[in-house]
Design brief:
Mean pLDDT: 78
Low-confidence stretches: none
Number of strands: 0
Structural class: mainly alpha
Shape: globular
Helix content: over 70%
Largest sheet: none
Strand content: under 5%
Number of helices: 15
Distance between the termini: 48 Å
Length: 321
């Protein structure tokens, strides 16, 4: 029943996003804009997103080591690229995270709970760093850019993140969380959520590590925002990079939520809606969103190559038949 509700919800949301795009966009004009894409700017967007996967693998290695899980940097980098590939056919980045947990658990049997907590903590720190970037974007946008409700939505994300961080990392919040145990037990979520909470809470004593991971994540998110700017420049949208420090954090947070497969239609609708408030035409905004989709596809190509190479290497030699 729950599965069917989720599927129906996804289809409805996708349908609404597609309808919005068809209402706003001239497909023929958009095709002309994409045909004139500046490949240099597009290559820069791809390079920014792809190369930042390496320090993200390093960040993951630090968190694993803190829980006694030792893995090589290059294997973790390989796992990151494979997860990007999985994200193309699974619900947003969360599907890729699940693939990382499954693959790593095969190398560390019996540690699925810890691995899940680490990956979700990593994702949570990424979200918190993105929200901080959004807070800076909020300050930059006040009185400078008129983006309406998006500005206050960014502020709401900031406040929500502070509340969640308080619940997860302060001991005084434990009695409050304990009250929800009977309800969670009734819906069979109490045990996995308890394991996740304990796994995350174990990092409470690793303050320096969390600060280091957070700082690295913030720097990476600030760099990744420039890939959106480069994708927009590739289709002729000439706005200041500052605009994307308002737009980028919200966009990354939207992609974290599994609305549709790989953010289909929701991503492009977000571009059209946000950039439209800054005077950008719907066709150009849609082209920028679609081009950023192609950036994520390009990020998946190393993972495809890795899987193909591993598949070929694992084939039995016919001469040994």
């Amino acid at each position: 029943m729950k599965q069917s509700i989720r599927v129906v919800g996804t289809l409805v949301l996708t349908g609404l996003a597609v309808a919005y795009l068809l209402w706003k966009v001239d497909v023929g004009r958009t095709a002309e804009i994409l045909a004139d894409t500046d490949l240099g700017w597009f290559a820069l967007a791809v390079a920014i997103m792809t190369l930042t996967a390496l320090p993200m693998a390093l960040r993951w290695q630090w968190l694993l080591a803190a829980r006694g899980l030792v893995d090589g940097f290059w294997w973790l980098t390989r796992s990151y690229f494979v997860s990007y590939t999985a994200s193309q056919v699974l619900p947003t980045s969360i599907g890729g995270d699940a693939v990382r947990v499954v693959e790593t658990s095969r190398r560390h049997p019996g540690r699925v709970g810890d691995l899940t907590a680490i990956v979700l903590l990593e994702r949570g720190l990424g979200g918190a760093a993105t929200v901080l970037l959004g807070a800076i974007g909020f300050a930059l946008a006040l009185g400078r850019y008129d983006v309406g409700a998006y500005l206050w939505l960014e502020l709401l994300f900031v406040a929500g993140t502070i509340v969640l961080a308080t619940f997860f990392f302060t001991r005084s919040a434990r009695p409050l969380l304990a009250r929800s145990a009977p309800l969670l037990r009734r819906v069979r979520l109490e045990r996995p959520l308890r394991a996740f909470y304990e796994g995350v809470h174990a990092f409470r004593s690793h303050g320096r590590l969390l600060a280091r991971v957070f700082t690295l994540t913030f720097a990476l998110q600030a760099i990744r925002v420039l890939s959106i700017w480069a994708a927009a420049k590739a289709v002729g949208i000439d706005l200041s990079p500052l605009v994307y420090y308002v737009m980028g954090p919200l966009f990354f947070l939207v992609l974290l939520v599994p609305f549709t497969l790989n953010g289909f239609a929701v991503r492009e609708a977000f571009f059209v809606s946000f950039l439209g408030q800054l005077g950008v035409g719907a066709d150009e905004a849609f082209a920028a969103g679609f081009l950023f989709f192609l950036v994520t596809v390009a990020m998946a190509l190393p993972g495809v190559a890795i899987l193909l190479w591993e598949g070929l290497r694992s084939k039995p030699d016919p001469s040994h038949a």
